[in-house]
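Q: Convert this sequence to structure tokens.
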Amino acid sequence: MKILITGTAGFIGFHLAEKLLKRGDQIVGLDSINDYYDVNVKYGRLAKSGIDKDKIEYNQLVQSSVWPNYNFIKLNLEDRENLEKLFDRQQFDRVINLAAQAGVRYSLTNPYAYVESNIVGFINLLECCRHHKIKHLTYASSSSVYGLNKRQPFSTADNVDHPVSLYAASKKSNELMAHTYSHLYGIPTTGLRFFTVYGPWGRPDMALFLFTKAMLENKPIDVFNHGNMQRDFTYIDDIVEGVIRVNDNAPKENSNWDPDTGDASGSSAPYRIYNIGNNNPVKLMDFIEAIEEKLGRTAEKNFLPLQPGDVPSTYADVQGLIRDFDYKPQTTIQEGINKFIDWYVDFFKVKI
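A:
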């Protein structure tokens, strides 16, 4: 298949592109390479995929030196004119949208970045999918959409109308926009609610990266909600396998679906929503202990209150993923943390 993957300089997009390239798909990767976090990590991911930093120019395709079936383009999803031209030239079969302005806390001080990238960018992508008869749009949503929900594990059957950050609201908006296009134009769309993804090449703004960096530099770590938090940490390889299984199987219309009694994750339109999480929430203090175990040192902890926009707990119900794709993430926390730290030490040339 010829697949457009947006966000391939990003954490999940980089790993997903590598996996699909290995199985022989033709990939065009797209990324704006913004400076939300250290661009050296983004360029490092691209270099690993054979994309030369010095050859990257805006709106120009760059051929990978490692993968003959991989081309990369630096492009903003908000750039409607050039995005449409890319679709005209490339004639994609499927689209996987992982590009987004990420981060809960950043959304408190930079709200317009989320509207421009996550809302305007997404409608541009939907329009391109509509006019170019894309066979399946798979896109990243987030566990953040569960907001004030207290019943756990979080289920895709539950209402998610009470987000607590603009980031979460933008992801919920994506789900609504996708449903509209599935209903009006028959575009198969699948939204994936990711639960705290971690692993090698992970984002520098995420807890595992921040904790590892601080501990190796003998600096204290910030522990929010006084450590009384838990997350359904999901290892990157498990996420990628789930995305591929979903992307390979486009949803179909379901004339038996009833809006009064039907599951909120489905529709009469070719539209589905799934959770992808480890289905095994880990206490934050246990997570920190696993890092300490690998590093062989104890962290100095700076205990702080819960931050605005954060939720104290996430826990994914993944029955939909098991039912429809016979798949459930398997990687243990200690195994995943060990692999991340091994990568970190190698990439930044530091010693434990």
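The CA atoms of residues 210 and 300 lie 13 Å apart.
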